[in-house]
Amino acid sequence: MADPPSSLGFEALPMFQDALREIVDRTEGGVASLIMDSEGIAVESYARDDAPFDITTIGIEFGVVLGSIKRAAESLEAGQAREVAIGTEKMTTLIRTLGETYFLALAIRPDGNFGKGRFLMRAAAPKFLAELG
User: Fold this and answer.
1) Superfamily of domain 14-132
2) Helices then strands (H, E): number in the chain?
3) Looking at residue 112, what DSSP letter applies?
4) Which of 21, 59, 78, 103 has its CA 20 to 30 Å from the CA of residue 7?
5) What are the φ and ψ backbone dihedral angles of 33, each rounded to 5 degrees?
């Protein structure tokens, strides 16, 4: 069965699902990842079967935080916010902006390899940006 059309006006691309899965699988402690727009609409997501939470809900909630951080960086004339890490007792969520409209998020267990996750996200960002247009 084909995926339903996205509310963004294009079909979810298999490349997104595969790339998100690769980021999670290659990051020790990786649990889930997603691409979301600034309105809180998930373009695509991937979560391991044993993920203890819904990555889309995390994306929506932390997307609001990201918006505040972006505005603060601009008002401080610090330049454009590119990356944010939010650490909690049960997970760390890494967020990387993809242009003005989208962001990539990766949820990692507390004992996971954050450096590897950051590297994989940074390496994948240009490909995601090219596909998102």
Assistant:
1) Dynein light chain 2a, cytoplasmic (3.30.450.30)
2) 3, 5
3) S
4) 21
5) -150, 160
**What residues does each domain of the chain span?**
14-132
Instruction: Return mean pLDDT, the chain.
Output: 86
pTM for the full predicted model: 0.85
Tokens 């650490």 belong to 87
Amino acid at 123: A
Q: Are 33 and 106 in contact (CB under 8 A)?
A: yes
Q: How far apart are CA 37 and CA 109, in angstroms?
A: 24
Strand pairing class (83-87; 42-47) = unpaired
Tokens representing 88 are 């909690």
Query: How many Cβ atoms sit within 10 Å of the Cβ of residue 124?
Result: 21
Q: What is the pLDDT of residue 4?
A: 38
Structural contact between residues 96 and 103, judged by C-beta atoms closer than 8 angstroms: yes
How far from 120 is each of 8, 30, 52, CA to CA, in Å?
25, 11, 22
User: In which band, very low, low, confident or very high, does the pLDDT at 73 lie, cut at 50, 70 and 90?
Assistant: confident
Which backbone phi and psi does 53 adopt, to 5 degrees?
Answer: -155, 170
